[in-house]
UniProtKB/TrEMBL annotation, chain A:
Keywords, ordered alphabetically: Membrane, Sulfate transport, Transmembrane, Transmembrane helix, Transport
Signal peptide: none
PROSITE patterns: ABC_TM1
CC terms in the record's Gene Ontology section: plasma membrane
Main location: membrane
Protein name listed in UniProt: Sulfate transport system permease protein
Tagged with keyword Ribosomal protein: no
Function summary: Part of the ABC transporter complex CysAWTP (TC 3.A.1.6.1) involved in sulfate/thiosulfate import. Probably responsible for the translocation of the substrate across the membrane.
UniProt GO molecular function: ABC-type sulfate transporter activity
Annotated organism of origin: Mycoplana dimorpha
Subcellular location: Cell membrane
Automatic annotation (TrEMBL), chain B:
Keyword terms: ATP-binding, Nucleotide-binding, Sulfate transport, Translocase, Transport
Any Pfam family the entry gives: ABC_tran
Any Gene Ontology CC annotation: ATP-binding cassette (ABC) transporter complex
Domain ABC transporter: residue ranges: 3-235
Domain of life: Bacteria
Cited PROSITE patterns: ABC_TRANSPORTER_1, ABC_TRANSPORTER_2
GO molecular function annotations of the record: ABC-type sulfate transporter activity; ATP binding; ATP hydrolysis activity
InterPro entries named in the record: AAA+_ATPase, ABC_SmlMolc_Importer, ABC_transporter-like_ATP-bd, ABC_transporter-like_CS, Mo/tungstate-bd_C_term_dom, P-loop_NTPase, Sulph_transpt1
Protein name as annotated: Sulfate transport system ATP-binding protein
GO BP annotations, alphabetical order: quaternary ammonium group transport
Annotated family: Belongs to the ABC transporter superfamily.
Amino acid sequence: MKPHHSGRRPPRIGDDPLFRRVLLGVVLFFVAVIIVAPLAVIGVQAFSKGLPYFAGAIAEPDTLHAILLTVLTALIAVPINTAFGVAAAWAITKHDFAGKRLLTILIEIPFSVSPIVAGVAYLFVYGLQGLFGPALESAGIKIMFALPGIVLASMFVTAPFVARELIPLMQAQGRDLEEAATSLGASAWRTFFSVTLPNIKWALLYGVVLCNSRVMGEFGAVSVVSGNIRGQTNTLPLHIELLYHDYDAVGSFAAASILATLALVTLVVKVALERQGAGRSKRPATLAGNDTLSEVKP
Amino acid sequence: MKIRLNDVVKTFDTFRAVHGVSLEIESGELVALLGPSGSGKTTILRMVAGLEYADHGHIYFGDEDATDIPVRDRGVGFVFQHYALFPHMTVAENIAFGMKVSKVKRTPEAIRDRVEELLALVQLSGLGERFPGQISGGQRQRVALARALAVDPRVLLLDEPFGALDANVRRDLRRWLRKIHDELGITTLFVTHDQEEALDLADRVVILDKGNIVQEGTPEEVCRAPQNAFVMKFLGDANALPATVRDGKAYVQDIAFDAPDLKDGPADLLFRPADVSWRESGDGVPAQILRVLDRPDSRRVLARTTGGQSIEFDTAPEFPHKKGEQGFLDIRRPRVYATT
């Protein structure tokens, strides 16, 4: 039978026009209802009484304080968790030691444990009636209902984020590059910064962005350990809830829009960094495995 | 630099990869570690490099005990099976890496000159600004070699250096590597599972099986006098016929072959496909032709003896006989090994 190129060809798998439209329709519907609509409502509600009212709501001292506290928490927790995540991924993927699998499981615990459980657990350890509470109290160190507690709870919840991004990638990359660098005389630090890090930077960046968004948005664990003191230990997510319970819908939506914006800023920073990185290395799109380029005969 | 391994043992978890291997590699020699996968050849190479530590035994570089010297200070050039080129660095940066991190300080000009020199040596001048992803497999292999040579290693170690390349590129690179070795005179040890590669390239071949050395010698020695059936079969196609040894003779269906040093009992008669002639009558093992395969320079005949054994042999392209014909196999240069 001779192939006919004119007219309709039979669909390939999943290429049926009806199927394609239904598939796309379902996906778009979900994106609109589940993701876009709520975010749009926040924006609309925040500005429903006009820009001046929005600005006033943000400039409210307690709200401003909550924003600052949230940013401060992220500035402390994200770098520490990034360093921890990189170290953990490095240890697990490039070194052999007893208890490696156990460590991998331990790192994942915060993913499966509800944040509120973490908060309560911290309360039991550092709270006044807790394990170290009295000792810390007599030493004049305040962890619960203060910044250290908020940072600790946020770090618990986001501990796996960077490591989970890096471990599969670093496992797939193997140890050849590190072994090659070492055999050429490079120290462990040199190997890490010159060879390992450049090959994981995008995954690392993504892990940092996820970690940051979660630190800023964490509610459950922080709400237990912070004590919800207005203008003192209220982070932005807690403050939003407080405003909402005060029937200050616009204030609450304004604060929520700030939180959403902070998350968007991190996303934009990530994309910008990626662009810049891609531009700097001046590499063409066809990176790997292009064996057809002008072969010079040996 | 002479390398000496003395009773080296390596065990992974419960699997013993290398059993008490002792080996000497003379200064300037090019030696192949040849064996099937799982024979421990790569583990031995990695222990010589310092990428693995021996559980037991010693490794000497010249008179120095190198057993516990870390890879970083051991002064070896290692070429990885998949090259392990740094993908984010250019070819020139890859080659310069070892010189940049070295404890011996070099000026940027000296490094640049050395990189140019090495690029010329591996015939890649002008490709220094490319990234590894932009060059061919054979070119990557040569970059890996240049990078390993840049630090003036005492010994050069190559893990399956041509394993990932096409047959043609492979043969060219093989001859070229031999030339480089002869120019530089650097002690070189490489691992391969390809007997043709080992015989083609090496001064001496060390054949390994299940973590032990089964035979070592020049290509001529291992080819002409394989020590046991494993070596005989591993080095090339071999036919096997069951035989019985009586009074210094091995009998295959009443045909006697010399087997002077063997005790009486069951044995295997091994011989190469090229060492068989087909006869329509006379002495020889009776057989029937099953198929005739054509090759560019010969014909390969698949036959079955009346005892039911499959035999393959090579003939001239003009071989006139066809499938189904009966005749006799005249076997030359057979080797008889006691059945283990």
